Each structure stands twice: as C-alpha cells, then as structure tokens.
Automatic annotation (TrEMBL):
GO terms for molecular function: oxidoreductase activity; zinc ion binding. Its cofactor is Zn(2+). InterPro entries: ADH-like_C, ADH-like_N, ADH_Zn_CS, GroES-like_sf, NAD(P)-bd_dom_sf. This is Alcohol dehydrogenase catalytic domain-containing protein. The keyword Oxidoreductase applies. Keywords: Metal-binding, Oxidoreductase, Zinc. The keyword Oxidoreductase applies. SUPFAM superfamilies: GroES-like, NAD(P)-binding Rossmann-fold domains. Residues 179-296 form the Alcohol dehydrogenase-like C-terminal domain. It comes from Massiliimalia timonensis. Belongs to the zinc-containing alcohol dehydrogenase family.
Amino acid sequence: MKQINRRLFLNKEHHLYLVKEEAPAPKGNEVLIKIASNGICGSDIHFFHEGRLGNFVVDEPYVPGHEASGTIIQNGPEAKRYAEGTRVVIEPGIPCGHCHFCKAGRYNLCPEVVFLSAPPINGTFCDYICVNENYVFPIPEDLSMEEAALAEPAAVAIHAVQRAQFRLGATGVVLGAGPIGLLTVQAFKAAGGGRVICVDVVEERLQAALRMGADEVIHAGSTETPMDNLGDVVFETAGNRVTTAQLFTVTRPGGCAVQVGWPNGNTVEMNIADMIDKELVYLSVNRYANAFDTALIWLGDGRINGREMITQRYTLEEAEEAFCWALEHPNETIKVIINNE
C-alpha cells in the first residue's frame, strides 16, 4: 500500500497549505526518510513573511524546512550505508562532490550545491523525502527526534567556532541571543572557550543565555557597560547592521571577529581603521561543513542543551499557526518544533 505524503507548500502570497501526494521512491544511493520533527528556521520565517531572503525569492509554491529528523524506511538500490529503521538527521546542503571546494573539504562553498528549502528547491516540511545517503547522520540512541532536529542550527554554531581563531580559555562575546547565538554560546564553551558574554536587547533571551552557560549578559539597549575590547573572539549572530558595525570595537587587539549573521540590507559601514590598528582577524561563516557529527555528539551528551532550546511545539496540520506564532512572538520564541505525529 502506497504511503500518503503530506507536503507543506508556501506560495508567493505568503500562504501555507498542505498537499497530499504519493510518497516518493528512493533512486540510486538515496534513502527514503519518514520525517518525525522539523525546526522552524529564521530563514523559513523570512520567506513566509517577506517572500525572499537575499537572492532567494518565492516565485512559485515550494516546500520550506531544512532542520529535520526522521527514520529511514527504505533504501534505494545502491544505498548501503544504513539499515532500514535507522534514525537520522538530514544535512540539507547537497554539493556536487567533485569540484575544487568539495575535494578540499569546504563543500559548503560548492557552486553547484543544492540546498533543501532554498526556493525553488523543496525542503523537509513533509511526511516523506528522499535524500542522498551520504548526507544523513545517525542519531545517538538517547537523543529525542525533537532535539536531534536541532543538529542543523547547531552545525552553524559549531562551524563558526571551528572557523574562529582563539586559544583555550579565551574570552568570547556573542552578539545576539537568538537560536544561533544561544547555540554559539554553548559550542564555544564545548570547544574550550573560557568566559562567555552574551549581548542582546531582549531580556528573556538574555535570561535564556544564562541558563545555557553564558557567564555574563549585557542588555545592549539599557546599559552603560562599555563595549570596547570585551572579548578575544567575538561572534556576530544577530544578522544586524548595528551589531556588525560594532564588531571591531568589541574585539580586543590581536583578536578574531566572526561574522555569523547575515546583516539586513547587506551593506554595513564599518571602521576599518579599528581592524587594522588592532590587527584583527575577520572571518565569515557560510552555513557549515563537516559539523553534523560533532553537533549530534554534543546534543547527545548535553554539551549543547537541545531541550532548553525548544519553546513551542505544533503538529504539521498546525504549521501555519506555528509560523504565525514564531513571527508575532519573537521575544517568547527560541525554537519552534513541528512534529509530524
């Protein structure tokens, strides 16, 4: 008997709706995954509310979602890595595998990468999806499907920490206490960072940062605390022009500034003289590479607290309500999870 595949489409009129179709069959080295849980990403909200993010535009209906966990229920004829019944997460960026960047291990820079949920490519808000077996990762036995769905955003934070240049015990500053900022606080500590200071304008998020391991928080909108030379390594995770412009001021001489967020408007006026005078290293982050194994280990052993990150839960049938909640209640939301059952 054929399985029915519910797929959640988003159109250019900003409407979400479910379509029932026949489940796909895996080809070649693909595996068919029955989706259990999805996280709503900030990019999903951008496409829902604004219809675009950067160069990606919702022109035609497509399926959003790329933070997914599920179970392999069928292997394609050439898929041999995992047994049916294996619980997995999906790495949504599928590169070509043979270009210069792929061969160098920096496959996130592959010019031919296909990223699930980047319009017009369909994503994971569905019941069943076929994925190349090389881009799924087994979930630790004691990790829930909901928490495993956080492996994708955790991979962003881990990649940022891997890109950063710092000595063990260094002081870190995280600008922005959204989901990526809170994950970066935890990943920095797990990777050997020392004291962590988290900066935001939302008190609820700052309290969450303290619960997740920040040693100090600064309310950027109501503080006289000087921001000069706060950290050896500073991560901008807010995707904000104001915080991006502060990076070189906040970073200590000889330190490292890491651009994780994508600033609104793309263009930021920055004082390059500060960067030169302090001889700073300025690095950027484009999604992730080689980070999912670590993400699952750290989620599994508690170095990253996935349970604390989840603030709301909905079903796939309630998806539009979930998106509206995340859009309208940003101060009360860290991560919304949509469960298929």
